[in-house]
Amino acid sequence: MKVFEIYFSPTGTSRRVAHAVAAALAGPDQAPVDTIDATRVPVAGAKLPPDGIAVVAVPVYGGRVAPLALQRLEGLSGSLTPVVAVVVYGNRDFGGAAVELAAFLSARKCRIAAVAAFVGEHSYSTEATPIATGRPDEADLADAAELGRAVRLKLADSAWTEADATRLKHPRSGLLSTLRFARFVLRYRRHPERFAASRAPRTDAARCEHCGRCVRLCPNAAIAKGDETHTDAQRCIRCCACVKGCPAQARTFTTPFAPVLARNFGRRKAPVSVC
Ligand SMILES: Cc1cc2nc3c(=O)[nH]c(=O)nc-3n(C[C@H](O)[C@H](O)[C@H](O)COP(=O)(O)O)c2cc1C
Ligand code: SF4
Ligand code: SF4
To answer: CB–CB of 8/58 below 8 Å?
Structure first.
């Protein structure tokens, strides 16, 4: 069984979960794992073999699969290949993303062996507004490995049936947190001008060392080499890869969502899966 790990992962949390699931799928003999990183380049005409198994992991943006992830995976198809569909979210809610990803993969001739939602450090998390800091952590990665082993076992039975993404349970947030967040979103939508928000990260020119790391990390070519203090807001998907990856802490992204998320979604949510 050939194992594939396929991901779109600007800040690396989906990649780490995919890797842990894939390593366990590869089994004790450590069958080689083929990596398809769709973060910065589209998957061009990748057809998964019928005797393979793939883990596909993507982040959740606004309760959906990050739109650029779906664009990047457009060229992926299977040959009734079993896949593990994984969405990774920032401890608020994964909304309809798992169902969306499973449907996307089914439409591309993949068979859904399992569906899961894992928590990753929120893209907007900072020292001042920590949101799921450090996740996936050891416990999450142990759960990811457990999922890989469970899928391996499941596929050993040739009569295995597909997992139903709609059965995935959503870990609960407290009622008060949910209400406070909903109220904030309403206020923000009605009067966005009242909140300090930027369309894209800003760069502190005095700190920038022009190392070009942000250029390499950006999934959508929103930063040009040699002009790192400028960001193309039209291309920016606000993934915060450049903010987290800047060695000089020159880049910052101001969003009113960060403090609200930090205040209301601090309670740890565990990974969930259906297999
Ligand atoms: C634009 C945007 C929207 C997001 N929306 C959600 C969301 O609806 N729910 C949530 O829990 N996390 C949300 N997140 C957080 C990401 O899903 C989370 O940080 C994920 O681990 C990022 O994956 P990556 O490390 O693979 O890039 C959002 C992040 C961004 C940048
Ligand atoms: S990663 Fe930071 S220091 Fe390097 S070019 Fe980008 S903004 Fe400048
Ligand atoms: S410029 Fe925007 S899209 Fe590019 S890495 Fe930074 S936040 Fe992500």
So the answer is: yes
Residue 201, ligand 1, Cβ within 6 A: no
The residue contributing the CA closest to ligand 3 atom 4 is 218
Q: Is 220 in the pocket of ligand 3 (CB under 6 A)?
A: yes
DSSP state of 107: T
- Distance in Å, CA 228 to ligand 1 centroid: 24
- 207-247 tens-digit pLDDT: 999 999 999 999 999 999 999 999 999 999 999 999 999 99
pLDDT at 192: 86
β-sheet bridge partners, residue 112:
83
Is residue 250 within 6 Å of ligand 2 at its C-beta? Answer: yes
pLDDT in tens, 128-170: 999 999 999 999 999 999 999 999 999 999 999 999 999 999 9
In angstroms, the Cα distances linking 233 to 192, 201, 224, 269 are 17, 8, 12, 32
122 ligand 1 Cβ < 6 A:
yes
pTM of this structure: 0.97
Distance 136 CA to ligand 2 centre (A): 26
Burial of 127 (0-12, 13-18, 19+ CB in 10 A): exposed
DSSP 3-state of 103? helix
Report DSSP state, residue 151. H
Q: Which CATH number fits domain 2-172+267-274: 3.30.1330.30, 3.30.70.3270, 3.30.70.260, 3.40.50.360?
A: 3.40.50.360
Q: Which atom of ligand 1 is nearest to the CA of 92?
A: 11
CA 259 to ligand 2 centroid distance, Å: 25
By alpha-carbon position, which residue is closest to atom 6 of ligand 2?
214
